[in-house]
Design goal:
This protein has one domain: Alpha-Beta Barrel (TIM Barrel), CATH 3.20.20.70. The chain is globular and about 55 Å long. With 336 residues, the protein is α/β, with parallel strands linked by helices. The chain contains 14 helices and 8 strands. The longest helix is centred in the C-terminal third of the chain and has 18 residues. An 8-stranded parallel sheet has the order 7-6-5-4-3-2-1-8, covered by helices on one side. It is an enzyme of class 4 (lyase). Keywords: Lyase, Schiff base. InterPro entries: Aldolase_TIM (IPR013785), DeoC (IPR011343), DeoC/FbaB/LacD_aldolase (IPR002915). This is Deoxyribose-phosphate aldolase.
């Protein structure tokens, strides 16, 4: 796997979820027979993921191309209790210019308007981020529905979605009620997700499964399928707040469900691994998995996002090493 990946420009369709050629997922009626038929061979999943890095690699200029592509797929995120408006503004500045100009010049892509896929914040800072990103075409994603536990009253969660959309969020990252999965109440999960999708209006909805709380890969697969049936545009691994977040085995299972859903309905569904993806080596493994399982189309930001806060700094360091032969300190790559 040595081909270069074309870097998405900010003004191109894949640079954001809005204005692209992929229609919203309308969902479908809940098919419990399909859900109940799901089976997962855990040992086969683990074996497939263990051999992934040994069989595929990208080097030198090709690796730089893949990493630049990964930057355009990052949901640059701050979800901390001590967030402030100024921190969010700095994050937005970094999202618009994620790689230092001298590095882009050395890579020969200074003419490309490279940006991250989105900026992800709590509802409180949606309006701040929307204002800071005005004119950039970078959407604001709001975490919602009682993030991260998802245990607020249902009506409160729906109102939170509506408030974020009213403030300008173009994407909503919802969290499901894990109890529905753990008790096998698939109808309740389906109805919950349908309500969330309706509350989003024109905003795209990413369903966070919090896979570290779901206990089994089979539960992950079934929850993925039910959320897609209910209209999720993306399925996302984690909030980043669980004890176990994105892993390759969990991701493989979710990608297989996306492939199965597409085969049945023709609908393209996006994927967002989140939590624990902090190095360039990590992100390359996920990109390779995406390409092998779903194909080249799923390497674009309208179908792939990485939920991350520290990943960008390591990618920028790796790109600087590629052009200078030296690693720099992290403080040379500030947030904004």
């Amino acid at each position: 796997m040595t081909e270069h990946i074309q870097v998405a420009e900010t003004g191109s369709a894949p640079a954001g979820l809005h204005g692209n050629a992929i229609p919203r997922n309308p969902g479908m009626p809940l098919e419990l027979d399909w859900v109940n038929e799901v089976r997962i061979n855990t040992s086969a999943v683990e074996r497939r993921c263990t051999t992934l890095s040994g069989r595929r690699s990208v080097k030198k200029d090709a690796q730089a191309g893949w990493l630049l592509k990964a930057v355009t797929c990052i949901d640059l995120t701050t979800l901390n209790g001590d967030d402030t408006a100024n921190r969010v503004k700095r994050l937005c500045a970094k999202a618009m210019r994620p790689i230092r100009p001298d590095i882009l010049e050395a890579l020969g892509v200074a003419d490309r308007r490279i940006s991250t896929g989105a900026v992800c914040v709590y509802h409180r800072f949606v309006a701040t981020a929307v204002e800071a990103l005005e004119g950039s075409m970078i959407p604001v994603a709001a975490v919602s529905t009682g993030f991260p536990a998802g245990l607020a009253p249902h009506d409160t969660k729906v109102r939170e979605i509506e408030a974020s959309v009213a403030d300008g969020a173009g994407e909503i990252d919802i969290v499901i009620t894990r109890e529905h999965v753990l008790t096998g109440d698939w109808k309740a999960l389906y109805n919950e997700m349908r309500d969330y999708r309706a509350a989003c209006g024109d905003a795209h909805v990413k369903a966070i499964l919090a896979t570290g709380d779901l206990r089994t890969l089979r539960n992950v697969a079934k929850a993925s399928l039910v959320c897609m049936m209910a209209g999720a545009d993306f399925i996302k691994t984690s909030t980043g707040k669980e004890s176990a977040n994105a892993t390759l085995p969990v991701s493989l299972v979710m990608l297989r469900m996306i492939r199965e859903y597409q085969a049945r309905t023709g609908q393209l569904i996006g994927f967002k691994p989140a939590g624990g993806i902090s190095t360039a080596k990590d992100v390359l493994a996920y990109q390779i998995l995406m390409k092998e399982e779903l194909g080249r189309r799923w390497l674009e930001p309208d179908l792939l996002r990485f939920g991350a806060s520290s990943l960008l700094a390591d990618i920028e360091r790796q790109l600087e090493h590629h052009v200078t032969g030296r690693y720099s300190a992290f403080n040379r790559h500030p947030m904004g």
